[in-house]
Amino acid sequence: MQKATLIIQCPDQKGIVAVVSDFLYKHHGNILEIDQHVDQELGLFFMRACWELDSFGLDKSAIQEVFEQEIGLRFKMDFQLYFNDRKPRMAIFVSKLSHCLFDILSRYYAGQFEVEIPLIISNHRDLKRVVEAFRIPFHYIPMDKANKSAIEDKQIALLEENHVDFIVLARYMQILSGDFIKKYPNRIINIHHSFLPAFVGAKPYHAAYQRGVKIIGATAHYVTEELDAGPIIEQDVSRVRHHNTVADLVQMGQDIEKVVLSKAIKYHLEHKVHAIGNKTVIFY
Ligand SMILES: Nc1nc2c(c(=O)[nH]1)N[C@@H](CN(C=O)c1ccc(C(=O)N[C@@H](CCC(=O)O)C(=O)O)cc1)CN2
């Protein structure tokens, strides 16, 4: 079934839900999903609407302009339209750890993600065979801190050549520059192995063990220049017992990371995540 998804952000006022649903009804659209949220502090309105295209009265190519003229301009809307006949293109960055990569690839192989994976980039060779077993191009680009911008230029060139829409850092252990991130704003998803904002940075499980925590967790967030400080998309936790070792925490944590990251990817793929400043609205 051909579907369209409309994402709206605009100043809040009465009547928006009515005019949008009337627009879809007037043009014979059958609404499949619709959700909205008002951020009262910011006075902002958010909506996600998904409808069947098959019997819709407007041609796909005309919807943007007609909606803009009939509603968008009047309500000062920022809006985006997406159609499910084009799968988003996701690049994955990895280093040495394989658990998140395996989880993503197994879900991809099982058809859980409506996505294309044109390439996987790594600063280590360790996961080359895993990636190539899934018949996905693997690009080994070792990090050279003295030439970080040149390395990132190579990565960006590959991403642009492959028309990548968004990037997943699946335990990629290199800090991205602000210039890199500016090219993919709120389109780089990282899995951090702690329940942020606790234990940012490297080795959070070791820090958690030393702190004697009773809960550990994982956080999927959009990447910003400040490390592990971007808009949170999904989190989960697990209880820690007094007899758990660091190795136990790492194993328990990795199981949480996989589920949290896969949920974040799915929400992003379905256009359910809306970043507002450093927070998110998620239309589950
Ligand atoms: N600009 C950003 N880049 C990255 C983020 C981010 O939030 N903003 N998240 C990290 C992932 N990460 C924790 O989740 C993380 C990765 C790497 C490091 C780190 O200290 N790396 C060292 C090198 C380590 C190595 O070579 O093994 C470094 O870059 O100097 C901390 C946290 C991904 N990137």
From TrEMBL:
GO terms for biological process: 'de novo' IMP biosynthetic process; one-carbon metabolic process. Pathway: Purine metabolism; IMP biosynthesis via de novo pathway; formate from 10-formyl-5,6,7,8-tetrahydrofolate: step 1/1. Keywords: Hydrolase, One-carbon metabolism, Purine biosynthesis. It comes from the Bacteria. It catalyses: (6R)-10-formyltetrahydrofolate + H2O = (6S)-5,6,7,8-tetrahydrofolate + formate + H(+). The active site is at residue 228. Gene3D superfamilies: 3.30.70.260, Formyl transferase, N-terminal domain. Belongs to the PurU family. Catalyzes the hydrolysis of 10-formyltetrahydrofolate (formyl-FH4) to formate and tetrahydrofolate (FH4). This is Formyltetrahydrofolate deformylase. The gene is purU.
